[in-house]
Amino acid sequence: MKAMFIAFVGIFVIAVAADQVLHRAGFAIDEVTSAPSVRLD
């Protein structure tokens, strides 16, 4: 049971870190899928 909780925490940490890295690298979903005429604020 303890190993499962550690695995869940690890998955959560990896997911948050991957989201931050991809967002800073310019792969955010709103930037990738929007047209140049759309203003993103």
Could you describe the 3D structure shown?
It comes from Donghicola eburneus. This is Putative membrane protein. The protein has 41 residues and is mostly helical. The chain is 68% helix and 0% strand. The chain has two helices and no strands. The longest helix is centred in the N-terminal third of the chain and has 23 residues. It is rod-shaped, with a radius of gyration of 16 Å. The N and C termini lie far apart (44 Å). The mean pLDDT is 85.
% residues in beta strands: under 5%
Helix amount, in percent?
Answer: 55-70%
The structure class reads mainly alpha
User: For the terminal residues, how far apart are their CA atoms?
Assistant: 44 Å
Characterize the largest beta sheet: strand count, sense, and whether it forms a barrel.
none
Mean pLDDT: 85
Shape: rod-shaped
Which regions have little confidence, pLDDT < 50, spanning 5+ residues? none
Given the structure, what is the number of helices? 2
| Rg for CA atoms | 16 Å
By DSSP, the count of extended strands is 0
Helix and strand string, N-terminal first? Answer: HH
